[in-house]
Amino acid sequence: MGKKDYKEIRKVENDIYELLKSVMDPEIELDIINLGLVYNILYDGDKDVRIEMTLSTPSCPLGDAITDNVKNTIKKKYPDFNVDVDVVFDPPWDASMISEEGKKKLGM
Amino acid sequence: MAKNLHTDNAPDISTVKPHFLFAAIGFFVLGVLLVFSTPYFFSVYYDHHLLAVTHTAVLGWLMMLIFGSLYQLIPVIFDTALYSEKLAKFTFWLTAFSISFLVYTFWMGDYTTLLPYAATAMYLSLFFFVFNIMMSYKNARIKNFKSLFILAAVFWLLLTETEGLLMVFNFKYNFYSASHLYHLHGHAIMGLVGFFLMMIFGVGTTLIPMFLISHHLNEKLLKKSFYLLNIGLAGLMLSKYFFSNQLLIILFWLMIIAGIIYYFRYIYDSYKHRMKKILDVGMKYTMLSLVFLSLPVVLSLIMIFMPQLGLQTYAETIILLFGMSMIFGFFTTIALGQTYKTLPFIIWLEKYQKLVGKYHTPLPRELYSEKIAGIQFYLYMSFLILTFFAIILAQEWLMQLSSILFLLVTGLYNYNVWKMFFHDSEKYINKRDKEILNN
Questions:
Q1: Does B6 touch chain A (CB under 8 A)?
Q2: Where among B123, B143, B163 does a domain terminate?
Q3: DSSP type of residue B39
Q4: How many CA atoms lie within 13 A of B34 on its CB side?
Q5: Domain of B412?
Q6: Among residues B143, B160, B193, which one ends one of the domains?
Q7: What is the value of pTM for the model shown?
């Protein structure tokens, strides 16, 4: 499979963005997109996807469960993809990153 | 690759799980003992049956829960793995045996034949626990006031146990010049304030803001709380054992109370700035426990100013109320709350970490019955209110009624704990798949 053009790349990235709306933070009970935990979705147009994301707290004991969920969710639809989840704490996450929809769901 | 995750250092579930199971059984045994101990609440607070009840509560229930929770939280608080999981497993079996042995000897009132052996076994198990935590702290990559609270707590635990062991041997060899009761107070204060309060404060500074999702808290409040609590307690113990100066004792008690107030302020900030506005049952218990902590604070003030207030005739009742409000009002309430927060996550991680994203998985809170947890919450609050009225009014029938309520609480709690332990992930996934297909 050859490399895709910009439009197709954006389409896959948008699709992954939608897929990640099913990945929940089990404690906050909100998906990681609405929580604002996902900073970047980078698809190389071939088989490599890199997700740059953070956690609600650096000491989050559920970190592995969330990153495993991200990988499994993407691989369920794109089994051939190599998914790399990069957890970063810069910038640190805070409440301002939660979407309006997310705030509503959390009763904020 | 995911980086910097604390779960990399998480202990094996087999190290943590038995502590929660023993604690649940210990909680039920506590309920049974309480039902059979009601007449003794109206004798003297150091009656041997009440000592059995107290040690079941603080060791069999609370300490086992703290051991399990702390092993799980060491990677989060210290950013390192537990020093030795093998030692932790060995310590569990020795502690389980020692607690059972110790409670049995207290219940039988056997202070000279069996108690020295039981107390020595208990001392050894606590020593191994303290050693494991201190060695983990040595490797800690995070050394702040949160981890210092833990370190100070295990230091006080060692002192508490040393005093306990010396008291037991004093029954046989009689080397103390002061009365047993005098030493019992020191042992109880070091244990309740030095170990349990300090440990819960330490663990709470990580867990409470994490569960409430609140950031940018004022760490200076923690620093002040830590110094006031430790200097106050050290001063109190030195004044008690070496100077016997009443004025100094009052001064150091006030320092401890100021330390608690600073901690309150820290948690209040976390509560005020929380993002998770709706509190689940676990956090309801937790926040209420902190409100309840004001009761022993007020009672301790009454205790230190007892002569000035002319309340000496009520000394026994006030001391009993102080002990009960600490153990049941604060420690047990927060322990119940935090079990409903941490245990579902521990079990959920064990059963579903490898399955998330591949199948529809439940939320951690769906592993237990929220309805049962809710009923348990209201029953427990009723138990607390009834118990305090029973002690103040010296009504044995009221105490009997409240102890039956407590036994019900322990039964409901055990139902939920065992429900989580026996949760079958395969069955859940198959059931969910069928539901999705049918829809």
A1: yes
A2: B143
A3: G
A4: 27
A5: 315-352+360-439
A6: B143
A7: 0.89
The closest CB to that of A61, out of B1, B345, B356, belongs to: B345
Q: What is the CATH number of the domain that holds A11?
A: 3.30.300.130
- Predicted ipTM of the assembly: 0.83
The structural domain count of chain A equals 1
Along the 108 residues of chain A, how does pLDDT read in single tens digits?
567 788 889 999 999 999 999 999 888 888 999 999 999 999 998 899 999 999 887 767 788 889 999 999 999 999 999 999 999 988 888 888 899 888 888 777
Let me know: does B266 contact B225? Beta carbons within 8 Å: yes
pLDDT tens string B225-265: 999 999 999 999 998 888 878 889 899 999 999 999 999 99
From CA B109, how far away is CA B273, in angstroms rounded? 50
User: Is A98 an interface residue toward B (CB < 8 Å)?
Assistant: yes
In a domain, B322, yes or no: yes
Total number of domains in chain B:
2
CA distance B293 to B39: 26
A108 — contact with chain B (CB < 8 Å)?
A: yes
Partner-chain residue, chosen from A64, A75, A106, that has the shortest CB–CB distance to B5: A64
Report if residue B239 sits inside a domain.
Answer: no
Domain presence at residue A73: yes
Task: Give me the residue from A29, A59, A106 closest to B76, CB to CB.
Answer: A59
Residue B182: the pLDDT is 82
Instruction: Tell me the torsion sign for CA atoms B52, B56, B62, B65.
Output: positive
